[in-house]
């Protein structure tokens, strides 16, 4: 199972990605959670302590490693497009609650994008996670899909866009679906989060095709309490975990069909 979770900042995609990862780990599955969001906080949502997280350097910031693997440095602007990366998850990943976390970080790109050693390195790591590993891989992405190439995305089981009941979130879903189509991916699903009432539910059902909607997670102050204390929402809210478990069951069912 290879899943990319995307959506704008603040919609709750990290809560969803982390809880989904914990649920798979509880089944005894080998789970790797990759944080590809520039605002990296997947580790806290998985239950890591702050001291451990403070010790993690994102792969995109490991200048020496990138130089060693790509051959690029200040004297040499030529670099390998296919650097060795298969050992990186086991070497640099940290494990908590049965989930291995790999913090990839992101590359600051200018308006025209970036074909630089850091970007090449990230794409190769993601490609390796998706195509060459047997783990359940859950990637907490930013709303853009620039780190994903055609070969990688064709091997993804699903893109899941986490949205809120609002027009801007719905637009994000449409944008991701369009980008995914350009990469040859048709499986783009939606999870609606922070749903407050029947009016919100009706809005979501009116805006999202039924075949794309995996489920809804209702607004819950327990998730806010977990975040305030730097804890995993999985350990704080049985209600939210149960709602995400139902969504997971649907994901599993889709993967069998």
Can you walk through the features of this model?
With 257 residues, this protein is of the alpha/beta class. The protein is built from 11 helices and 8 strands. The protein has an 8-stranded mixed beta sheet, with helices on both faces. α4 crosses α6. The protein is globular. Mean pLDDT is 86; it is low at 109-113.
Report strand order across the widest sheet: 3-4-2-5-1-6-7-8
Count, helices: 11
pLDDT below 50 for ≥5 consecutive residues: which ranges?
109-113
Radius of gyration: 18 Å
Tally of strands = 8
Into which percentage range does the β-strand content fall?
A: 15-25%
- H-E order: EHEHHHHEEHEHEHEHEHH
Q: How far is the first residue's CA from the last residue's CA?
A: 13 Å
Overall, the morphology is globular
Instruction: Determine the fraction of residues in helical runs and give it as a percent range.
Output: 40-55%
Largest sheet: 8 strands, mixed
Structural class based on helices, strands and sheet pairing: alpha/beta
Q: Averaged pLDDT, please? A: 86
């Amino acid at each position: 199972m290879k899943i990319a979770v995307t959506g704008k900042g603040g919609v709750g995609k990290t809560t969803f990605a982390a809880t989904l990862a914990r649920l798979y780990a509880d089944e005894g599955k080998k789970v790797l959670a990759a944080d590809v969001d520039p605002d990296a906080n997947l580790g806290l949502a998985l239950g890591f302590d702050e001291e451990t997280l403070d010790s993690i350097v994102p792969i995109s910031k490991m200048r020496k490693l990138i130089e060693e693997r790509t051959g690029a440095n200040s004297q040499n602007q030529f670099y390998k497009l296919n650097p060795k990366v298969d050992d990186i998850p086991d070497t640099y990943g940290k494990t908590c609650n049965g989930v291995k976390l790999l913090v990839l970080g992101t590359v600051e790109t200018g308006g025209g994008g970036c074909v630089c050693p850091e970007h090449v390195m990230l794409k190769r790591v993601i490609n390796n996670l998706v195509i060459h590993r047997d783990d359940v891989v859950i990637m907490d992405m930013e709303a853009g899909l620039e780190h994903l190439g055609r070969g990688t995305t064709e091997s993804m089981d699903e893109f899941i866009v986490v949205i809120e009941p609002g027009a801007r979130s719905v637009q994000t879903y449409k944008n991701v679906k369009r980008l995914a189509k350009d990469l040859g991916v048709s499986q783009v699903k939606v999870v609606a989060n922070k749903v407050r009432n029947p009016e919100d539910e009706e809005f979501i059902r009116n805006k999202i095709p039924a075949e794309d909607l995996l489920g809804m997670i209702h607004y819950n102050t327990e998730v806010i309490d977990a975040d305030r204390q730097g804890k995993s929402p999985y350990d704080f809210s049985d209600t939210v975990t149960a709602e995400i478990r139902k969504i997971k069951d649907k994901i599993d069912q889709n993967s069998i069909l």
